[in-house]
Design goal:
heterodimer; A: Urease, subunit C, domain 1; TIM Barrel; eight-stranded mixed β-sheet; four-stranded parallel β-sheet; 13 helices; 30% helix; globular; B: alpha/beta; Rossmann fold; 36% helix
Chain lengths: 435, 302
Amino acid sequence: MLIKFYNANLLDPITKTKGLADLIIEDGVISKIKLKRKSTPIQIKGKKSKNILEINAEGLYLFPGLIDMHTHLREPGYEYKETIRTGTLAALRGGFTSVCCMANTFPVNDNPEVTYYILAKAKEEGSCHVFPIGAITKGLKGEELSEMAMLREAGCVAFSDDGMPVMNSIIMKRALEYSKAIGSPLISHCEDINLSEDGVMNEGKLSFYLGLKGIPKASEEVMVARDILLSKYTKAPIHIAHVSTKGSVELIKFAKEQGIAVTAETCPHYFTLTEEAVKDYNTNAKVNPPLRTEEDLEAIKAALKEGIIDVIATDHAPHHIDEKKVPFQEALNGISGLETAFSLSLRLFHEGTLSLEELIEKFTVSPTKILKIRKEGIKEGAQADLILVDINKEWTVDKNKFLSLGKNTPFDLWTLKGKVLFTVKGKKFLDMRTE
Amino acid sequence: MKDLIGIKELSKQDIEEILNTAKAFKEVLQRDIKKVPTLRGRTAINLFFEPSTRTRTSFELAEKRLSLDVLNFSVSTSSVVKGETLYDTLKTIESYNVDYIVLRHSSSGTAKFVAENTSASVINAGDGTNEHPTQALLDAFSILEIKGRLDGLKIAIVGDIIHSRVARSNLYLLSKFDTEIRFVGPPTLLPQEIPDNVKIFFNLKEGIEDVDVVMILRIQLERQKGAFIPSLKEYSHFWGLKKDLLNYIKKDAVVMHPGPMNRGVEISTEVADSSQSLILRQVTNGIATRMAVIYMLKPKEV
């Protein structure tokens, strides 16, 4: 199989390559990259043979495949929400060639057998690279450490109890200490669950107005502060998941200035939506941490620009329709995000918040550094791991076209600017040019 | 209008119309024969997912006075305990061809959810801490009867504001008129961010000074568990409305309570039974107001 891209704008922050190029992929490997001064007219004569795909990429971009540091693939255990097969297909459609799947499966990924299962499934049925994230504590209970070293050996790249934050500080301290021997970071979903109580949205005027119980911003910030201080004390790196508040941004900024080994991510919904999105009790906008206010949204954008927030992740959290078609209080948290995340993030480029290069770094270089995973980028001899993007193409989100089983999105029917047209991951590819 | 989800969704004109209609029904209720044939042949179901005797009884009486056939569906005997989803419960009820659903649920936003998923008219009889619109309407009706107006009044709402759907519905209703609204209570029971048109008082005496209406809210006996208040004794001492405090409100001011009361906690017996108390009048007016609401709603033609 031969795939040829002509006259593409190649932009790869991994290899630090930039420029107009023709690129050939042969059986899943990049066999040739020809950088050139100006585009040369080409004639694509239709399909010469079944095994050659020629693509006129004039005006389009080739980026390295994106990495999602925060995905819920739901398998094993919740295959009615998502499977490794459907989740990784959704990833390709969204431009992600690697996803890091969270440990809150059933059983929990707190022992190597589960990790092996996930990796075997991914190899058999998956379409993109799957990097499992192991649990920090057994059963996500926050009591005993999971077998972190064995999990690492089995293939886990990081550790997180995600939605079940480690409330007990001594356990968190020991987990941080222990992680130093392993060399993989902890990812912390920062939430003081006592402060959140049974809150379901951001606490403020709107939560009072809707009669919904609020989650104070302090619920996140208290734990961001704790984890920063524990990281400082233990000298172990900590990665803060899905930052949602201005206060968290300020704390992370302070920590970075102190030289503390903290990194952070946010998700597209936190720089795209505010709490106003739940005003009509829209369960598809119910997410944890909750959507906040305009001032938080602006602070998060600024933090992305200033490099205080290193990574954009999806927190792809697919749910079954029955789990969202209930009164707001009872609805599960989460947004099916893989297929909209990159287009939503391109808004940051279009509005001038980030350069294209900075934006791609948040999805590629930064995750590889934090997770210490190797990505070769777009270069000759490397496995093909890239996406073709029309950064200006306008398209309308249609949840029914999602390849993910999770149709839970607050962005349905939104018109977005910028679309992934073609994703190649080794010998696998997904062609979305005619969508 | 198909449903009554909340006061939020009503215009000032809607409210005035309901209150006028309620006045007409109150006259009916004073006749020897209190029943009108208006809605004969139509069916109402009281769908209560939370225990309530007073509100349900009041609705049931209002429905019967309108000649509706009435069904009561309460949680303990329902299939909900068998794990049926609300959506399926609704679809089942819809299949009975019910015209009106009176809903009480512990979850905020449920009335809207139900209204969106059925063609019957839905009347919110309290959804979580969101709204209890008929309570606010009957409160307004009662104030109007005594004061003749809502505009220009100062109203203090006292107590467990954050957990109260009654406080919210009253806030939204009174905000549509030219009123001064005060929230009075311990900070743990007041909203974290105060609505723009509300004045906050931690001190009861200052909060009720010179007001025309004091609305006392019921304090749930379990509030000390969540560390909202240290004890009922302390709450009662500082925020319970006692007789001597009546000197601080206007001479012709009225005291209201949505019931059921905890006598001696949020309100003293002397105040509850005083001539300034509207509490029993509120109960009476509840029936006329609910009749008016049901009468004015139009189920979707199927």
